């Protein structure tokens, strides 16, 4: 029995598609606006939409800073079964997002003229840019706080609701663009208003779903405040820094490309940037789907699960990126016609396609470091990928004419090389310590090297459970545990897996971790399905109300609760996590058990189950 990826592959796959759609919240609006504006108004208006891109990314910076940081912290607290703290971060993000959004709206409407002149760089496109910016500023609040329900619906495992949110964004924006541009002839302001209103409609639906009866993040005015705002900003900084640097990079590249290739080149760049933004559903969605799970695993040093998630990300990301790049190249003529471009765009699309593979690697890497408390390293990777190398490469190639587009793959390659160099420094330094770190992910594998933990996966059948119990006994012997301690661990596995399998007959795979530390021993069980805590009946004092058959079935659970030093259950990201620890050398009431009663109890219950069948 080894740790396999069956359980995590299923959970990651269940989350991936909804999260990919959630990343499209802003980029799909820009793409739809660009197509409608190009067809209705012309290439100048299309270039103006791209010039407004930095403004939209600055707005997204604020939203992702709050929602991204709060969701990481909430997932960690939920993994520790500290739901009150988890909900507190949610309410802090909601309060700050609403307040900052209102302040930014007022400032933006007042400064719309100077901002438009700056974005358009004093060109003849200033009027188009002003109309688009004014409507965007007017509806800024829902754009900022829309990230909050997206991130928290993911924590609740509500993939269908995320898909519906994105359906609202796409559908409402498409319909309103058609009405505002063709029906009412509102021009650039109408295109921006369509984007803002579609986000507002999606935001309303998302918060409504979080208000449902069994939601862990229902609104509670008593929890509103700014507690934990520093931690939220810290953990949200990599995403926010990335968005801010994207905005600054886009502003500088717009100027450089306009001067090097003229208005025609600026229009091509607008299309490339829109398609690059669309690809974020892969390069950002793939790591974002795994981020909360990695944060939970890292908090308990479960490195085997982290490595499985990293492999799953790379497999899914490379497959999806390859399909997207192939589609771009095959439909290059259609893209040219859709955006009314005068020249073929196969070469620029090829350069963009190659760069997307490097983008994926860097995004997965930086997101991983963000989820594992290495914030500075994550920000360094983001800075190289989003700002330093793209601008440096574009500046050097700006005199090469059409070959300027090669700056995209060149900057991506340099970012991967630079990231490897940045990671190599702490990895090399750690070799002089008792806890050397792995070369790529900087994980501390001390527990695995010393044989203090055992990770494996099983299909929870009676035979597999018995085999798992025997393997755990060998692990306990190897760690010099006394017979009573060994019996507790073995009995806990047998009893809990049987009870959980009974409650969820469709359960296909369970991930197990057994640990034997100096001060304590214990187990951690992870499985999918509906929320189920086998100890909840005892906590609520309901066992006296159960019939004799049920009392027999839960007798082992009752005994384990009296034996354990600590028990906790959490349900987050659609996963049940049950944790139980025992004092290694301390004394605890044994509830009348001797060292052979655990196996006898399991046998008795199994016989009772077979008799019922």
Automatic annotation (TrEMBL):
Domain of life (superkingdom): Bacteria
Tagged with keyword S-adenosyl-L-methionine: no
GO cellular component, one term: plasma membrane
InterPro entries xrefs: MATE_fam (IPR002528), MATE_MdtK (IPR050222)
Pfam families attached to this UniProt entry: MatE
Molecular function (Gene Ontology), one example: antiporter activity
Keyword set includes Transmembrane helix: yes
Family: Belongs to the multi antimicrobial extrusion (MATE) (TC 2.A.66.1) family.
Protein task: Multidrug efflux pump.
Protein's UniProt name: Probable multidrug resistance protein NorM
Annotated organism of origin: Candidatus Eisenbergiella merdavium
Organism ancestry: Bacteria, Bacillati, Bacillota, Clostridia, Lachnospirales
């Amino acid at each position: 029995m080894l740790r396999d990826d069956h359980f995590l592959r299923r959970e990651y796959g269940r989350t991936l598609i909804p999260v990919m759609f959630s990343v499209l919240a802003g980029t799909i609006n820009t793409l739809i606006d660009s197509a409608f504006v190009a067809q209705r108004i012309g290439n100048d208006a299309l270039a103006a939409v791209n010039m407004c891109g930095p403004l939209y990314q600055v707005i997204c910076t604020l939203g992702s800073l709050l929602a991204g940081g709060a969701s990481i912290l909430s997932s960690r607290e939920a993994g520790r079964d500290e739901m009150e703290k988890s909900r507190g971060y949610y309410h802090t993000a909601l309060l700050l997002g609403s307040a900052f959004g209102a302040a930014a709206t007022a400032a933006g409407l007042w400064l719309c003229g100077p901002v438009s002149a700056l974005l358009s760089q004093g060109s003849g496109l200033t009027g188009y840019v002003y109309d688009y910016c004014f409507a965007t500023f007017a509806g800024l609040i829902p754009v900022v706080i829309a990230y909050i329900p997206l991130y928290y619906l993911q924590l609740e495992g509500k993939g269908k609701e995320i898909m519906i949110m994105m359906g609202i964004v796409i559908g409402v924006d498409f319909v309103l663009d058609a009405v505002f541009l063709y029906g009412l002839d509102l021009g650039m302001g109408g295109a921006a208003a369509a984007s803002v209103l579609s986000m507002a409609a999606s935001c309303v639906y998302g918060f409504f779903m979080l208000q449902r009866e069994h939601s862990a993040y229902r609104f509670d005015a008593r929890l509103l405040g700014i507690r934990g705002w520093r931690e939220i900003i810290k953990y949200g900084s990599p995403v926010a820094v990335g968005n801010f640097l994207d905005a600054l990079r886009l502003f500088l590249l717009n100027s450089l490309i306009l001067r090097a290739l003229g208005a025609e080149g600026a229009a091509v760049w607008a299309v490339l940037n829109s398609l690059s933004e669309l690809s974020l559903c892969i390069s950002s969605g793939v790591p974002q789907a795994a981020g909360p799970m990695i944060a939970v695993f890292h908090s308990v040093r479960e490195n085997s699960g982290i490595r499985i998630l990293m492999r799953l990300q790379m497999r899914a990301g490379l497959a999806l990126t390859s399909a997207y790049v192939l589609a771009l190249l095959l439909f290059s003529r259609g893209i040219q016609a859709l955006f009314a471009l005068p020249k073929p765009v196969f070469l620029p699309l090829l350069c963009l396609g190659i760069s997307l593979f490097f983008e994926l690697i860097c995004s997965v890497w930086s997101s991983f470091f963000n989820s594992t408390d290495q914030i500075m390293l994550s920000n360094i990777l983001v800075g190289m990928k989003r700002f330093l190398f793209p601008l440096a490469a574009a500046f050097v190639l700006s005199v090469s004419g059409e070959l300027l587009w090669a700056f995209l793959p060149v900057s991506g390659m340099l970012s991967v090389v630079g990231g490897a160099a940045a990671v190599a420094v702490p990895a090399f330094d750690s070799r002089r310590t008792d806890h050397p770190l792995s070369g790529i992910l900087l994980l501390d594998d001390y527990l695995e090297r010393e044989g203090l933990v055992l990770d494996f996966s099983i299909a929870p059948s009676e035979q597999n459970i018995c085999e798992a119990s025997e393997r755990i006994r060998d692990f306990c012997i190897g760690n010099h545990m006394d017979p009573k301690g060994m019996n507790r661990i073995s009995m806990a596995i047998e009893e809990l897996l049987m009870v959980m399998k009974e409650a969820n007959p469709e359960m296909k795979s369970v991930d197990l971790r057994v640990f034997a530390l100096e001060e304590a021993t214990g187990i951690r069980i992870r499985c999918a399905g509906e929320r189920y805590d086998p100890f909840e009946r005892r906590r609520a004092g309901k066992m006296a109300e159960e019939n004799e058959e049920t009392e027999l079935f839960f007798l082992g659970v009752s005994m384990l609760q009296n034996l354990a030093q600590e028990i906790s259950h959490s349900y987050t990201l659609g996963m049940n996590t049950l944790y139980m620890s025992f004092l290694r050398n301390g004394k605890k009431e044994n509830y009348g058990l001797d060292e052979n009663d655990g196996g006898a109890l399991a046998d008795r219950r199994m016989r009772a189950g077979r008799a019922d069948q």
